[in-house]
Amino acid sequence: MGMNPGSLNPQVISLAGGGPVDMTGPLSYTWETLVDGDVTPAISGGSRFKTANTAPTTITDFDGVVVTGQSILVLFTDALTKIQDLSNGSNIRLEGGIDFDSAAYDTMTFEYDDSDWVETGRNLK
């Protein structure tokens, strides 16, 4: 039995301080640059981050205000950033339990599970 598209009830999202949100156009995101050399960079208030390290840097955690289920995307714009796995003393759980050495334009996604950042995907260039 097929559905009549005219009978669907679209969802309207309202924000606490205003009216409905128009979700008909493309979404736009801003890339925030992580602080050069920071081994526990703050990711409060964002979801898309890029590295710009000028010296070898091993990230062991993402800090700031985080919530369970929060997802972030990291774009590596350098080949100087390493992500350290939980098994080596970090708060980041990587696929296979092996530290990750970046190359320029690699990407990784993570989700916070209330105690650790869990890798949910990677794209290697």
What's a quick, concise take on this entry?
With 125 residues, the protein is mainly β. Helix content is 0%, strand content 28%.
CATH class: Mainly Beta
According to CATH, the fold-level topology is Jelly Rolls
Structural class: mainly beta
Q: Count of DSSP E strands?
A: 9
The residue-averaged pLDDT reads 87
What count of helical segments does DSSP give? 0
Quickly give the CATH architecture: Sandwich
Write the layout of secondary structure elements.
Layout: E1 32-33, E2 48-51, E3 57-59, E4 71-76, E5 81-83, E6 92-93, E7 100-101, E8 107-112, E9 117-123
Parallel strand pairs: 1-2, 2-4, 3-5, 6-9
Antiparallel strand pairs: 4-8, 5-7, 8-9
Describe what you observe in this structure:
This protein is mostly beta strands and 125 residues long. Helices cover 0% and strands 28% of the residues. The protein has one domain: Jelly Rolls. It is built from no helices and 9 strands. The strands form 2 sheets. The chain has a 6-stranded mixed β-sheet, with no helix packed on it. It has a 3-stranded mixed β-sheet with strand order 3-5-7, with no helix packed on it. Strand 8 and strand 9 form a beta hairpin. The chain starts with 31 loop residues before the first strand and ends with a strand.
What key phrases describe this protein's structure?
disordered N terminus; mainly beta; Jelly Rolls; 125 residues; 9 strands
